[in-house]
Amino acid sequence: MLDRFNRNITYLRISVTDRCNLRCVYCMPAEGIELMDHQDILSFDEIVEVCKTAVSLGVNKVRLTGGEPLVRKGIVELVRMIANIDGIRDLSLTTNGILLSKYADELKKAGLMRINISLDTLDPDEYSRITRGGDIKKVIQGIVAAQKAGLYPVKLNAVVFDKNDEATRESLQMFAKDMNLELRFITQMSLETGEFSVVEGGTGGDCKHCNRIRLTPDGYIKPCLFSNIGYNVRKLGAKEAILKAVENKPKVGVTCSNGNFYNIGG
Ligand code: SF4
User: Fold this and answer.
1) Could you tell me the distance, in angstroms and rounded to a whole number, from the CA of residue 145 to the centre of ligand 1?
2) pLDDT at residue number 42
3) For the whole model, what pTM was predicted?
4) Cα separation of 64 and 20, whole Å?
5) Where are the domains of the chain?
6) Cβ contacts of residue 100 below 8 Å, gap of 6+?
7) Any residues with Cβ below 6 Å from ligand 1, and which?
8) Are the CB atoms for 54 and 12 separated by under 8 Å?
9) Measured CA angle at 70 (ends 135, 152), to 5 deg
10) DSSP 98-114
């Protein structure tokens, strides 16, 4: 489906939860967040219904995000249900990697194709500071498990806090090279101020060629990360919500004041 700017929308990013097992300083407040009510969170059947509708309208690429998608109970089953939808050519997931060594094999067998893992530094203390207590060893174990399970490619998403921090950049580049991983650098973004840039080594942030829409855990189809626009699938039905979102997709992202990375899915 084409939007008003002739961009072909083929990519649906689905945030399956606003919960996370980390508290990254650039994403969540230390005290945590007010979680969405359980009854507001879409069920697996509702998510699959939105996916099927999106595929019937031209989507062929789906990514699962969060919060942290691996904390959603039954996530492997959801992957299996989505992987069984005809027309999905690319099914991926973005994770902080903490639980990945436990699920990598099952996710692959359920139909997941590839995976992105958030890793902003290789320094264990700095990693613990950024994530407010995360254990980097678990992430490394997750990376190894993902490769062993045959998920490919395995990509690293590294948020760049300081463009001049060559040491962190080089250590991540060497690690990615040694481990045969693809590395993407994401300049720190701010929904409030509208600061974002094109993902280095990726396609995010390139408004001119933007091909994506998002589904929030509570059922809003968002045409753009940096906008307050959203249409609820429970109120409008999946088809009308998706078509309205594409119809009203902004030319470029500006700001978002009614959502957060942890409940839109970055
Ligand atoms: S800011 Fe909006 S239009 Fe631009 S790339 Fe991101 S989602 Fe697409």
Assistant:
1) 32
2) 98
3) 0.95
4) 14
5) 11-260
6) 70, 115, 117, 139, 141, 142, 143, 145, 146
7) 205-207, 210, 212, 224-226, 252-253
8) yes
9) 90
10) TTHHHHHHHHHHHT--E
CA distance 91 to 111: 8
Which architecture, in CATH terms, is 11-260? Alpha-Beta Barrel (3.20)
Instruction: List Cβ neighbours of 162 (8 Å cut-off, separation of 6 or more).
Output: none
Which residue, chain included where needed, has tokens 């230390």?
A: 30
Angle at 106 between CA 103 and CA 110, to 5 degrees: 130
Q: Considering only 20-24, 43-47, 65-69, 161-165, which range has the smallest mean pLDDT?
A: 161-165
Read off φ and ψ for residue 156, nearest 5 degrees.
-105, 130
Q: What is the DSSP letter of 56?
A: H
| Residue 213 contacts residue 232 (beta carbons within 8 Å) | no
Report how far ligand 1's centroid is from the alpha carbon of 254 (Å).
9
CB neighbour burial string for 152-187, b if at least 16 within 10 angstroms, e if fewer: eebbbbbbbeeeeeeebbeebeebbeeeebebbbbe
Q: Using CA atoms, how far apart are residues 65 and 217, in angstroms rounded to an integer?
A: 10
Which residue minimizes the CA distance to atom 6 of ligand 1? 205
The tens digit of pLDDT for each residue in 160-183 reads: 888 888 999 999 999 999 999 999
Please say if the pLDDT value at position 14 is more than 80: yes
CA nearest neighbour of 161 among 134, 193, 127 = 127
Residue nearest to atom 4 of ligand 1 (CA): 207
Dihedral angle sign, alpha carbons of residues 38, 41, 44, 49: positive
Token pair 């009854």 in the structure block, residue: 39
Q: Of the candidates 28, 134, 44, 130, which has an alpha carbon nearest to the alpha carbon of residue 85?
A: 44
